Structures are given as C-alpha cells and as structure tokens.
Amino acid sequence: MDTRVTWQEGLTFTGTADSGFSVPLGADPAVGGADDGFRPLELMGVSLAGCTAMDVISILPKAYSEEKTPGCDRLRGARPCRASAGAPTRLYPRKDRVYCDRPPH
User: What is the pTM of this model?
Assistant: First the structure.
C-alpha cells in the first residue's frame, strides 16, 4: 500500500492512496486551520470503524440471514488529551465501538 499526503496551503492537505481515492485533511481554526477537511485523528477512528464494519459484514452473512446483519459500525471516543504537559502526542482516553442492528435514522 502506498499513501501520500500533499500540502495545499496553511494546514490543508490532500491524502491519497494507490487505490486512486483522495481525502481532504484539515485542522480546527483554533490551531490555525481552515476547518476544511478531516482531522488526522478523526480518520484513524473512521479507519478502525470501517475495518471492523467490513469484517463483521463479510463474516455475519455466513451465519445469519441478511435481515440479521448489522447496518452500521460507529466508533465513539472522548476528545483527545495531551499525554503530558507540553507533549505534542495526543491520546484518546476512551473508545467505544457501537454496532447497530439497523442503519441509524
């Protein structure tokens, strides 16, 4: 897998992968961003939830009818906090995976 992040301007980037798809990356205005794309930490959550959902969807139909397969996978987490004073690393203090029987309305 080959990925690339290309700087556009300020704190705006475009992430691409060898699949040919791209995703906008941005930052919160509070840190100098333009609020014009996913935050990198948000994409980590989307990635984990997406991988889990695809695994579940590909496995469950073998054991259950289509009516029983889950309709969504959501990852909820508390806002990231600094690991320690002055440290650039941010940690998620908690993550909860939520599986739904039907798509959310």
Answer: 0.62
